[in-house]
């Protein structure tokens, strides 16, 4: 049996060589817990990995202090330096560690299902092929998160285990794994998604523990195809084979309605509740407020769309204390002055905005213990289809309608909004896609780096003048030094964890050299 303790230690420390990893057989025996089963059922591993994934990427650290404010969905009133790109290295260190730990859990499911003896037990938790295929899909989801944040990374592939460039998640053979190139990773992720979709059969997936599709393999197949469409569309400018991948994914069957949405369900306890809800109501943090830039777009003050009733689904009116918001509640207001938003990138912390009644909480729909976390939704697929079909008007309208319906906007208001939509073009489609991606800000960040949208019509970019809504006074949005640079645009990436500079130094140096430096202004492969 593999030394699971060694793997976990390596995961926490970034899959790098330290003396602690070389546990002896005797030490492994000492570390056994006689009251805990050594073979954890695969459905429990899957459930736990998914929960860990969203608790550590949609919480008050990874998402809420990087992509969510950078894409100006939110703004902070206390740690304004993070909004100005001076994030804390501990955020990326922890994110890297957790994402590799989660990937290792999906790999563990695959290994249990492939073991002839263990498979006899694991089949009780779902069809073996389907468990493997679903784990492959989630591995791509995790590695996509890593490669879009950092660039070249240590990578593992189910279908290319012997590839010398794919050394991650194999601490017994590769204590200091090489960093695979982004181009090679993307090509393999597309291959993995295609093969995983083909591997899925009509039997059940996980019989329990699947809080995304409840074991429905037909839905998992559509998700794999839709993710392949997303990734191929992202890299089409730099990857000649992407055009064929796009058409192949569409032909294989992508999302066609909100019924297909990939959403990880949240529970009703402080453990299983929505990660952002836990940030506010368990962690008792109230640092994050609806951004003025996003609020202006929804109010129709910027952009080309007029008033958007999604405003009420995303923001609460100002004037609320935490106690009022939590215990009394609120009613929506027609007076738009009640929705000023938090100005983004202020020079310093300002007392006025530290008073919670002067800014806007996220709505009760957002800060809801039971709100599920979106991996991908039909609206995004429709916008991609609009783009690949020369900015198709019909797909554009389908995308807008799907998101409005998913948020339970009143049908009459949906009809009015859609009747006034400007024609589909690059700006309008991608700006509507930006609104949809509020629930997936990492992907919104990917889209900005790929397309430059939303542009300065919506976002406050470095060097531009912002306005304080309470008195009309102005300030210049000036990013702070992050690493060794001051960014002139949104961050192009985040720096590698500082632990890699000691635990995997040679491979870190090579990856850094290949990317032109370990700084936030170094563009990733797909964005060049």
TrEMBL record:
It comes from Sphingobacterium humi. The keyword Zinc-finger does not apply. SUPFAM superfamilies: TPR-like (SSF48452). Pfam families: SusD-like_2 (PF12771). This is SusD/RagB family nutrient-binding outer membrane lipoprotein. Residues 1-21 form the signal peptide. Transmembrane segments: none annotated. Keywords: Lipoprotein, Signal. It comes from the Bacteria. PROSITE patterns: PROKAR_LIPOPROTEIN.
């Amino acid at each position: 049996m593999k030394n699971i303790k060694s793997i976990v230690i390596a995961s926490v420390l970034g899959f790098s060589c330290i003396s602690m990893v070389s546990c002896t057989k005797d030490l492994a025996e000492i570390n056994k817990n006689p009251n805990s089963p050594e073979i954890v059922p695969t459905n429990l591993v899957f459930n736990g990995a998914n929960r860990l994934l969203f608790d550590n990427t949609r919480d008050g650290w990874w998402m809420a202090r990087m992509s969510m404010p950078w894409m100006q969905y939110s703004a902070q009133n206390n740690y304004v330096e993070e909004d100005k790109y001076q994030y804390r290295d501990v955020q990326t260190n922890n994110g890297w560690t957790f994402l590799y730990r989660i990937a290792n859990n999906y790999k563990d499911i695959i290994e249990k299902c492939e073991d002839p003896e263990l498979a006899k037990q694991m089949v009780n938790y779902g069809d073996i092929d389907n468990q493997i295929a679903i784990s492959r899909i989630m591995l791509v989801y995790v590695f996509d998160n890593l490669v879009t944040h950092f660039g070249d990374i240590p990578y593992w592939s189910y279908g290319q285990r012997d590839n010398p460039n794919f050394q991650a998640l194999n601490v017994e053979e590769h204590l200091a794994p090489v960093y695979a190139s982004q181009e090679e990773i993307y090509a393999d992720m597309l291959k993995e998604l295609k093969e995983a979709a083909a591997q899925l059969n009509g039997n059940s997936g996980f019989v329990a523990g699947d809080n995304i599709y409840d074991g429905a393999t037909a839905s998992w197949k559509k998700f794999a195809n839709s993710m392949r469409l997303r990734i191929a569309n992202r890299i089409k400018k730099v990857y000649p084979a992407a055009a064929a991948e796009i058409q192949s994914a569409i032909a294989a069957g992508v999302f066609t309605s909100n019924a297909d949405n990939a959403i990880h369900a949240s529970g009703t306890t402080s453990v299983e509740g929505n990660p952002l809800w836990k940030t506010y109501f368990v962690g008792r943090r109230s640092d994050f407020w609806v951004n003025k830039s996003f609020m202006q777009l929804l109010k129709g003050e910027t952009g080309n769309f007029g008033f958007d009733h999604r405003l009420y689904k995303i923001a609460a009116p100002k004037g609320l204390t935490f106690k009022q918001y939590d215990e009394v509640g609120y009613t929506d207001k027609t007076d738009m002055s009640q929705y000023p938003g938090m100005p983004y990138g202020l020079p310093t912390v300002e007392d006025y905005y530290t008073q919670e009644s002067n800014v806007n909480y996220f709505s009760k729909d957002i800060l809801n213990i039971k709100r599920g976390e979106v991996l991908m939704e039909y609206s995004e697929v429709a916008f991609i289809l609009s783009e690949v079909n020369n900015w198709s008007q019909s797909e554009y309208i389908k995308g807008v309608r799907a998101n409005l319906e998913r948020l339970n906007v009143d049908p009459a208001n949906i009809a009015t909004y859609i009747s006034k939509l400007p024609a589909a073009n690059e700006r309008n489609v991608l700006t509507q896609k930006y609104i949809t991606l509020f629930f997936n800000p990492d992907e919104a960040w990917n889209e900005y780096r790929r397309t430059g949208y939303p542009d300065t019509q919506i976002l406050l970019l470095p060097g531009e003048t912002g306005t304080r809504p309470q008195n009309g006074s102005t300030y210049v949005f000036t990013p702070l030094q992050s690493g060794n640079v001051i960014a002139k645009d949104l961050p192009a990436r985040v720096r590698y964890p500082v632990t890699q500079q000691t635990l995997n130094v040679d491979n870190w140096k090579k990856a850094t050299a290949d990317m032109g430096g370990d700084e936030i202004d170094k563009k990733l492969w797909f964005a060049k």
